[in-house]
């Protein structure tokens, strides 16, 4: 079998185009002409020996081989960037205080901290998992250097919107769905304790749709929410991120419950000009987030 060595610049163009949803935008982002990007994609397909993109309306979509290629391309680029950071950024020292939503405790935190620690072993990272209001308050008071929090209409001085995730009704996995109800009773909701962005979004959407509801279960943590939903006590409203196998996110065509839209995600910094360690961690979080958002 002929040995193939993929060109990392070509892979970076491919991944960037997919993540931006446009190879024209990828050309702008990477400082290349559209013809150069087209040539790179042609080279990638020649190396892969199979099409990785197909026409879809006015744009392009991944083929099955393209989906496989995307996963490997991300891994190759991450390893390349990690090696570069380790060689040229090993001098980074100090500490970074990071705040995250509980939703990202497993789905994002492990990969982010692993990559950062391997590249910058001299930097100490302190992590706090908390609700939105607490994260924003800690950033504003300087007790956190960086926080990944839901967009809640409350801005801090140094905030960057990194993307969105769809809001989905969450029901028990498998048989025994809580909705639709046949007994005419109000829809039982399983929610975090107020104040909660998603709790407000859920009740507002149900009121607008004239669907009666009641709060059947409240919890201070997501673990309690997942346990209650899995037990069939009610439905919840979250993003598809970090769901355990015992529950599932209902797609719009699977339910008559009202669509709720999307929820933005923001990266908040305590300072306008953060330390190199904070900026490097922020960069890794953004990269990992892009992959997580596509998977969701």
From TrEMBL:
Pfam families: HTH_1, LysR_substrate. It comes from the Bacteria. Keywords: DNA-binding, Transcription, Transcription regulation. SUPFAM superfamilies: Periplasmic binding protein-like II (SSF53850), Winged helix' DNA-binding domain (SSF46785). Residues 6-63 form the HTH lysR-type domain. InterPro entries: LTTR (IPR050176), LysR_HTH_N (IPR000847), LysR_subst-bd (IPR005119), WH-like_DNA-bd_sf (IPR036388), WH_DNA-bd_sf (IPR036390). GO terms for molecular function: DNA binding; DNA-binding transcription factor activity. Belongs to the LysR transcriptional regulatory family. This is LysR family transcriptional regulator. It comes from Dyella japonica DSM 16301.
């Amino acid at each position: 079998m002929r040995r193939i060595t993929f060109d990392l610049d070509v892979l970076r163009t491919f991944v960037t185009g997919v993540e931006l949803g446009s190879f024209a935008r990828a050309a702008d982002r990477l400082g290349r002409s559209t013809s150069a990007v087209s040539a790179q994609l042609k080279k990638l397909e020649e190396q892969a020996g199979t099409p990785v993109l197909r026409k879809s309306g006015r744009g392009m979509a991944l083929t099955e081989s393209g989906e496989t290629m995307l996963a490997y391309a991300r891994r190759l680029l991450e390893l390349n960037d990690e090696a570069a950071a380790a060689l040229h950024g090993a001098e980074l020292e100090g500490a970074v205080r990071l705040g995250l939503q509980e939703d990202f405790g497993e789905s994002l935190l492990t990969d982010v901290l692993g990559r950062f620690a391997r590249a910058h072993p001299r930097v100490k990272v302190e992590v706090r998992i908390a609700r939105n209001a607490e994260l924003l308050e800690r950033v504003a008071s300087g007790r956190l250097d960086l926080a990944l929090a839901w967009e809640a209409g409350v801005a801090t001085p140094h905030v960057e919107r990194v993307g969105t995730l769809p809001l989905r009704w969450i029901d028990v996995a498998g048989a025994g769905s809580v909705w639709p109800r046949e007994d005419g009773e109000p829809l039982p909701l399983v929610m975090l304790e107020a104040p909660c962005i998603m709790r407000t979004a859920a009740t507002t959407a149900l009121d607008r749709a004239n669907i009666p509801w009641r709060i059947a279960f409240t919890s201070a943590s997501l673990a309690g929410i997942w346990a209650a939903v899995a037990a069939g006590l009610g439905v919840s409203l979250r993003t598809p991120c970090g769901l355990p196998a015992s529950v599932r996110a209902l797609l719009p065509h699977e339910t008559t419950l009202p669509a709720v839209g999307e929820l933005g995600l923001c990266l908040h910094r305590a300072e306008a000009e953060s330390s190199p360690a904070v900026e490097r961690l922020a960069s890794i979080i953004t990269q990992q987030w892009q992959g997580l958002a596509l998977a969701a």
